[in-house]
Design goal:
heterodimer; A: about 260 residues; mainly beta; five-stranded antiparallel β-sheet; 3 helices; B: mainly beta; Proliferating Cell Nuclear Antigen; DNA Polymerase III, Chain A, domain 2; ten-stranded antiparallel β-sheet; 5 helices; globular; Rad9/Ddc1 (chain B); DNA_clamp_sf (chain B); phosphoprotein (chain B)
Chain lengths: ~260, ~375
């Protein structure tokens, strides 16, 4: 298993750092999947995480000037490692004035993702900084738990087909509803679209507000497009697209 | 007794010194003398000591005198303050700098109080009465000029290095050779997914204002007190000088400025040969313990020839090494360890006059 990559452009480094910070806010430990053309940050749903799951995908060519990887085997040309997301974001944040950043998978007593940064100091001489981030290699038999979640065949898209979205909170004392109108409905990819669904009929799902807040607070990258899918009483799925980075986040309904 | 005054911008530097010393300990000694006003702090396990000495010309005005006791002896101000009492007065230093026109500090011996008055704009006057505890200050004597390794560097460079290390990592290692300097995380033997990131940063000799490496060495010390020193040095815009030697011998961080002098002395981890008797302690993991700053109670009078007792306490460092034992009284000849002595009042007196007044204090 081998992986080495280099970022030489300041804007790419900045963007990658922000994505990494966003991931760190949404997940404590996550899986990094490395494939020849993409990088994924994955948080699989688990009871401990409250059923929340996250899937973030980046095309590597838009970030790295050099990228080489060799997966576990020829048929399975992928690498899955688990790491503490904040370790990566913090290491990247120290690379503010970097001339170049290299990241590679190493094995120094234990597997690490080693980030090497060439900093430019005020006297314009280089200073080398290295961070060894401990990672855990995920064995192949667990890979099936970390696949891209299928977008569910939702009954409704966008709360209703007329482009209305309502966010509502209710407590004993007060009930507040925010109405969004004239939102778009993306064309349905599903062939089993229920034709008899009335456009005004609302689908609703009740989710834990803290998880929703955590998702919103984590946003560091302003998306160009966002889709919200509601599966009535089951879950809500957010799909955000910012240029080349896509982030999907699933919040299950409260039981 | 103490009576001094400073302007708004001087208050900021003074406040930064207090903030830096608060990283060392929860208590602060106010120790005025003819040399100026010294602020001193020692941590509870005696592995770190900080002192900032403000020379009389730092202040707008500075008056100091010894007080005369009932029995005719002179005594210094033995004043120990809690950080909890004094730190809040010097919070929000930027706004203090803008708003404070004059700050006066004076002591009232009749009530064991230090009075800090801030004369602010718009005619506002804030008076703080802080009670102090009678306690003789501790002072470390450390011959930093005899160290083989001396580095002088701008605080900004060190700050860039320190930011690499998270607050969960207590200790950093400084490794030096004549060719380069490396600041890195202190390594532990077994690391796993839950361990911290291991980071290292190399700094070339040309980045130092003064670079003298007499002996290749790696010393490990606590990051927290270094951060405290950095806070202060950024306020003074003066470079930091590091004096150190082999592991176990303390590291001195100092700032020498026209108007003030700061010294932070940190104990470093000492290498100890592994105990051969136990089969489990194979050479891989060396038991390391922090070698302590020696503390002494001195009874020095001009005619007093008694050798100074120095109690060298090897105290277990904060976390991992729980089975270290305290004991070991060694003499002054214990090479390399700095000596702490109580600042005493006898220096100006006639020989043979009353010996050091022992003050009861809490440990």
């Amino acid at each position: 298993m081998k992986f080495r990559a280099k970022i030489a452009d300041a804007a790419c480094l900045n963007h990658f750092t922000r994505v990494s910070c966003m991931v760190a806010k949404l997940a404590r430990t996550c899986t990094l999947r490395i494939r020849p053309h993409t990088l994924n940050f994955i948080l699989a749903d688990s009871a401990a995480g409250g059923g929340v799951s996250m899937w973030c995908e980046l095309p590597q060519e838009n970030f790295f000037s050099e990228f080489q990887m060799e997966g576990v085997s020829e048929e399975n040309n992928e690498i899955y490692v688990e790491l503490t997301a904040e370790n990566l974001s913090r290491a990247l944040k120290t690379a503010q004035n970097a001339r170049a950043l290299k990241v590679k998978l190493t094995n120094k007593h234990f597997p690490c993702l080693t980030v090497s940064i060439e900093l430019v100091s005020v006297s314009s001489s280089s200073r080398m900084v290295t961070h060894d981030i401990p990672v855990k290699v995920i064995p192949r038999k667990l890979w099936k738990n970390l696949q891209e979640p299928a977008v569910p065949d939702s009954d409704i898209i966008e709360a209703n087909l007329n482009g209305d979205l309502n966010l509502k909170i209710e407590s004993e004392l007060v009930s507040v509803t925010t109405h969004f109108k004239d939102l778009g409905n993306p064309p349905s990819a599903s062939e089993n679209e229920s034709e008899d669904r009335s456009p005004e009929q609302m689908a609703e799902v009740q989710v834990d507000i803290r998880k929703f807040l955590q998702f919103l607070a984590g946003q560091q990258v302003n998306p160009t497009r966002g889709i919200c899918n509601v599966v009535s009483h089951k879950m809500v799925h957010f799909d955000l697209l910012h240029e080349d980075v896509s982030l999907q986040y699933f919040i299950p309904a409260m039981s | 007794m103490l009576k001094c005054g400073m302007s708004g911008s001087q208050v900021k530097v003074f406040g930064k010194a207090i903030q830096a010393l608060s990283r060392v300990s929860d208590e602060l000694w106010l120790d005025p003398s003819e040399k100026g006003l010294a602020l001193r702090s020692v941590n509870s396990c005696r592995s770190a000591y900080g002192c900032v000495l403000f020379s009389p010309v730092f202040f707008q005005h500075y008056h100091w005198s010894t007080s005369v006791e009932v029995n005719g002896t002179k005594s210094n101000l033995n004043c120990k303050l809690g950080m909890k009492s004094i730190l809040p007065i010097f919070r929000c230093l930027n706004s203090l700098e803008r708003n404070v026109e004059m700050c006066k500090i004076f002591t009232r011996s009749d009530k064991s109080k230090v009075v800090i008055q801030l004369f602010c704009r718009h005619g506002i006057k804030k008076t703080h009465n802080v009670c102090f505890q009678e306690s003789q200050p501790l002072q470390v004597l450390f011959e930093k000029n005899t160290c083989s390794n001396i580095l002088m560097i701008q605080p900004r460079v060190l700050a860039e290095a320190i930011v690499l290390f998270t607050s969960s990592q207590e200790e950093v290692t400084l490794a030096v050779t004549p060719l380069e300097v490396c600041i890195k995380s202190s390594t532990e033997e077994s690391m796993d997914l839950n361990s911290s990131v291991y980071s290292e940063m190399f700094v070339g000799p040309h980045e130092f204002e003064f670079f003298q490496i007499g002996v290749d060495t790696e010393i490990t010390f606590c990051c927290k007190e270094l951060k405290g020193m950095l806070i202060f040095s950024e306020a003074t815009h003066a470079p930091i000088t590091m004096h150190f030697d082999f592991p176990g011998k303390p590291l001195a961080l100092s700032i020498d400025h026209m108007l003030l002098e700061a010294n932070f002395i940190l104990a470093t981890l000492a290498d100890e040969p592994s105990r051969a008797s136990s089969p489990q302690s194979l050479c891989l993991s060396q038991k390391r313990k922090r070698s302590d700053l020696a503390v002494s109670n001195s009874k020095v009078g001009k005619k007093d020839n008694k050798a100074m007792e120095s109690i060298s306490r090897k105290v277990a460092p904060r976390n991992l090494y729980a089975d270290e034992i305290l004991s070991n009284i060694s003499t002054l000849e214990n090479s390399g360890s700095p000596i702490m002595k109580r600042v005493n009042s006898d220096t100006e007196e006639e020989p043979g006059s009353s010996s050091l007044r022992k003050v009861k204090e809490k440990h």
